[in-house]
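Record minuted for everyone:
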Amino acid sequence: MSWFDVTLRWYLLTLLTTLAFLPLTAFLGRHITDRGAGLARPVAALALSWPLWFLASVSPVPFGVAGLWVTLALALVIGWPLAARAKLFDRTLLRHYLLAEAGFLIAFAAFIWFHGYGPATTFQEKSSDLMMLASSMRSRDMPPLDAWLAGHHINYYYIGYVIFGSFGRLIGTTPAVVFNLALATIFGMTIVGAASLGANVLSRWMSERAAMIGGGIAAFLTVFAGNPWAAVKVLQGVSAQWHGWFFSAVGWQATRFIPDSGGQPAISEFPAFSFILADLHPHLLALPFAIAALGLTWALVNLPEGTWRRPAVLGRVFPTGVAIGALYAMNSWDFPTYLVVALAAVFAGLHCHSIAERGKIAGALIVSAVVLWAPFYVAFEAPTQPVSQGLANSVGKVPVVGGVIASLAGYTGERTSWDQYLGVFGFVYVVAIALIVATF
């Protein structure tokens, strides 16, 4: 099979998956500008893998090709008739979806071309990433078996590998090919997701055209722009940085320009660097799913009126909880941040719920984020010490609760100083504060 054939099959499968779960995305994004079209692909990828992953984690049901096809078929058979009955599809959704799909295809193809100059999976930390991807593609049980530690399961943030490994299983290709196609898919989904989120937020205060321009700027700042050090170096000499060696010019040095207390460089990686380096690490795998979680969080701002028990409310809250909870199993450091943002959206939303009702909605969000990912919590053993060792020991054997407490840990090592933190994020905060002030 040629590279073009397998790439085409991969793209068509992700397209089919996106269309199969488009009714779900349209329902979740019904009250935002693009109807959720820009988030459709990451939401669909997660929706394809999560049900079978959950069943394989708690029952003898195997995680295999047959189960994935059944999930896809059920989404088509159930979702589309319900969407037609609810009249979710209209010209607005179609227009935004075609725009999002065109943007994804362009970004996907561009990354295939760019990364094609160096697609080897044998450099940096790619070997460990490839092992977890290959194990996720072969294992019928969850968590996947650890190929480097016989008799044990992978004790890591492995869900991203399961998601993209699922596509690899369905088209019948090798882990090395999936590795590179996953990178291109993540790149495309991140660009489209960032543009969609930016445009959806801005459309509340400006015209659709201006909001789309703002979305494009958001995508550029999210994916391509580096940190302030990189920006300064580019301004000092664009040609020198463009023609310089990646590991001695803006790329490598820009991620290690802040020293720690011992004088050693601390890593301050940004997406453009990550995509060029092309290690399939959890922090890169999680990028489009974190943006999708933010997009669904923005939809929570516009929840329909009524009690928290209404299907129209819970039908949006629980899938959002699944998306946010996935971040713990995908790149655990993201989970608390995005959960707090989602809770803030619930309490600051425009819906007419009382504080008590908002509290119940927030509780449902937390429950869905934790309970629906409980198999991961139970099986995962954090490499750090819990916040309260005594509490962890006393409830360690309690289902779900013990696993959650054992996964929480307070960091006791060296901390980032204020000058280091502001050196990376200070400029972004200035711009964000200026934009917030400008809206009043």
Observations:
- The radius of gyration is 22 Å.
- The longest strand covers residues 258-259.
- The beta strands are 258-259, 265-266.
- Residues 15 and 41 are 8 Å apart (CA to CA).
